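Dissemination and training. As part of the outreach component of the grant, students in the summer workshop were shown how a complex can be specified as a set of sequence lines and then modelled as a single object. The example used during the hands-on session is reproduced here so that future cohorts can follow it. Participants entered these lines:
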Amino acid sequence: MTTFLDYLLGGLGSGAIIALMALSLVLIWRSTRVVNFAQVGQAMFTTFIALSIQTWTGSWFIALVGALAAGAILGVFIQYLVLRPVKRNDTSGAIIATFGVLIALQAAAGMIWPGGSQAFPQPFNNAGIEFAGRVWPISVYDFVVIGVTALLVLGLTLLFTRTSLGLSMRAAAFNPEVAKLSGVRVSRVLTFGWALAGSVGAVAGVLVAPVSTISPNSFDILLVYAFTVAVIGGLDSLIGAISIGVFTGLVISLVSGYSDSGNAPIVALLLLALNLILKPEGIFSHHKARSV
Amino acid sequence: MLTITDLSVNYGAVQALSNVSITVPTGEVTAVIGANGAGKSTLMRTLSGLVKPGSGGATVGGVTITGRKPEDIVRLGVSLVPEGRSTIPELTVEENLRLGGLWRDKAARNATQGQVFDLFPVLAERRGMRADTLSGGERQQLAIGRALMSDPRVLLLDEPSLGLAPLIVTQILELVSRLATESNLAVLLVEQNAVTALRVATTGVVLNLGKVVMVGSGSEIASDEQLRHAYLGY
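and obtained this result:
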């Protein structure tokens, strides 16, 4: 039983990161019906930028803020340069274009930051906390990750439920025509959505880097998990992304603990398949059905 | 006052509207009636900016509105209640209303919201509920309320009777005509249900295959048997 609880605790931090990455996919999907496969590429790119900032300034906090800003700018850039020129209503064209962006970002990162995998400095102690006479499988850094995620989720919730911009974003996602007739500048709102998703993904990247390494392809597995989580959550649900994200973190930790960490992606894909068979519209979706 | 002059709209090779000229005076309801495919909805979508005009245009108080974006046209005082489900079901009643005047400053918006609640008390009762919990008639009231939140000078109503019980249609249209007089609103009402529309309209315009075939007072059109047979099918 103790081992079981230990594995659960150990999965919280990675669950929070998966949740954030899934959240950035959901933010784009809700407003544009496009799955942005470039999201992990954007996060990887901004994490390299954060690493450079960290090396210059020595401050993790400045690096995190820098990644937030870079993520927003990169998101807007991609929307303007790649997504806008793709014909409207051509959703599959747009999705394929995001794959192109992913490959381009990975190639560019390989040229700008050569030398393969690099270590991202540990900003906080990542060793298990000693408390009540034993070492727990959760570190100070895990608490930082969970705290930053919680703050971000709280901020997004307030944005969506309490502000005019948030109401515009929801209206533009649910019914762009009525939003336009109401005076909402829908294309600006969409651009803001890309900036926001870019920032959220960038935070996920900076948070995961110290516990893995950073290379042009190092976040690929995160895409698998985040995509799985977003689909199971219903693709348009923020609550779905967060709760299923944390849940998946726990499942991965249990699978890795009891068997082998190499089995975790297979279990994630099994979960995805099971979900598509039993509840294809996702658990938290606003929509009744989705064809797959 | 809304003035439409020689408005033509094409969908590819199909001419949906040709040289349509209509004057919609302030304080009155003007009804555009005609069969399916007469171009009624195209007229409304062009006036609200969802469709680009081919030639001709429309002005409100001397300012050209056609050819602009919907977001800008609503700021010039023209508000459309589109056909069918024009509320957002996932949002609450109050959020749907707020949406209608989001670009205005908060004090003005709150004042208008108070007026809308006076006009439709049921919306005040249901303000915190999701729009999809409302009945058809309540949802139409919400749709009109959302359009009024921009404090328009011109209100465009596209088929408000669609899918509603006759008694509710009469109530809503009478309220709209009262609103036109009391708030000095120019109302352009598009209806397939000619009898109901002509009862509240000062002026009726008959549209057939994209052309204006007759303009007259509501009672004139209602009593013209030949016209009714030819264009309205009753």
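The radius of gyration of chain B is 17 Å. Students were then asked to discuss how this feature might be tested experimentally.
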